[in-house]
């Protein structure tokens, strides 16, 4: 009995001591005041985790018209409406765009956003760099200039509107529209106006190019609709590394001087998967251009794809390595054109035109070394040399008002090494009225050409010893 009592005493003492130890441990862990043993223990403290906000990034690392706006992982978005832009199509939003640009330019991988639903009017503006890498101008709304010359501020340049200057690694993209409000410029009496017979009257006058990239490298343009420019829609001067993808350029067929894309002194350019319809050249390539790749483009109505004009005022012109593939040209005054002035120097070389579909084109294939815009041009002995030109798989229909193939080369500097392969051009309506025309043009037919081009000369021309027809290029 004594043993049982002793065991009971030991059990009671152990239970009390164990409970006290639990109480002390709980009190120390939670740093609470004394609690009763019957109180439930407090819940453990919540774990602290970093939860940064989701931030959008470059929405168009490779220009794409479909990504959701803002669905990205870039560092910062600078919405122009946060800087005071109204976007009602009436208020002047220039200051807001400049402020947003200035802020974004200083931040790596930033986005200047003109959001969907806004119609933003700005005056002639230069968006200049250098800026931090990865800058994006994302246009999802509508961007437009003042409506015509009377509304244009006196202090602003009338030769350009939207200028991007000294940028590297810049993207201009979105699902929005650049609206040029060009009608009142086209109606100016000093503009050349096309008559019913194709003739024009008056000389060109100053009107703004809508978008200009100047002295900039590694530029991407994609997804945008660009329309109704007062003059050229988009122009690249002194640039290198340009990618244009999935854009639409449009203006009326008779809108004067509204070239779609113009390149000057610009190298390494890709123009892909785009549609251009306008009142002048679909794509024009000026002097100083090389390594140009054009693919998947639809042109027309337009004046076609042109190299030149080159060599004006006895100047030197150098153009090389131009490729045009998988392209459609329809309802156009010209198809594939090279045009040079007499008296120039330099060369146009290594041109490849391949897999081209023509639909009702007036001058499908043309080299014109007698280009002139007035009746006062005189015959000159020097010329920009044209050589190494390939036309492969060029098929479709032509307007019978002019011969579909026209090689008018300089009397003294012949066109050489022209290759024709699988060229088949048939009348859109009626019957063939003119055979192909050649003057001082040398080349070969790898396959039978339709219509037959028997006027190409074989071999190479005889040139005087020491003659250099390609100075400086």
From TrEMBL:
<keyword id="KW-0378">Hydrolase</keyword>
<keyword id="KW-0134">Cell wall</keyword>
<feature type="active site">
    <location>
        <position position="303"/>
    </location>
</feature>
<keyword id="KW-0326">Glycosidase</keyword>
<dbReference type="Pfam" id="PF00295">
    <property type="entry name" value="Glyco_hydro_28"/>
</dbReference>
<keyword id="KW-0472">Membrane</keyword>
<keyword id="KW-0961">Cell wall biogenesis/degradation</keyword>
<feature type="compositionally biased region" description="Pro residues">
    <location>
        <begin position="39"/>
        <end position="68"/>
    </location>
</feature>
<keyword id="KW-0812">Transmembrane</keyword>
<protein>
    <recommendedName>
        <fullName>Polygalacturonase</fullName>
    </recommendedName>
</protein>
<feature type="transmembrane region" description="Helical">
    <location>
        <begin position="6"/>
        <end position="25"/>
    </location>
</feature>
<keyword id="KW-1133">Transmembrane helix</keyword>
<comment type="similarity">
    <text>Belongs to the glycosyl hydrolase 28 family.</text>
</comment>
<dbReference type="InterPro" id="IPR012334">
    <property type="entry name" value="Pectin_lyas_fold"/>
</dbReference>
<keyword id="KW-0964">Secreted</keyword>
<feature type="region of interest" description="Disordered">
    <location>
        <begin position="35"/>
        <end position="73"/>
    </location>
</feature>
<dbReference type="InterPro" id="IPR000743">
    <property type="entry name" value="Glyco_hydro_28"/>
</dbReference>
<dbReference type="InterPro" id="IPR006626">
    <property type="entry name" value="PbH1"/>
</dbReference>
<dbReference type="InterPro" id="IPR011050">
    <property type="entry name" value="Pectin_lyase_fold/virulence"/>
</dbReference>
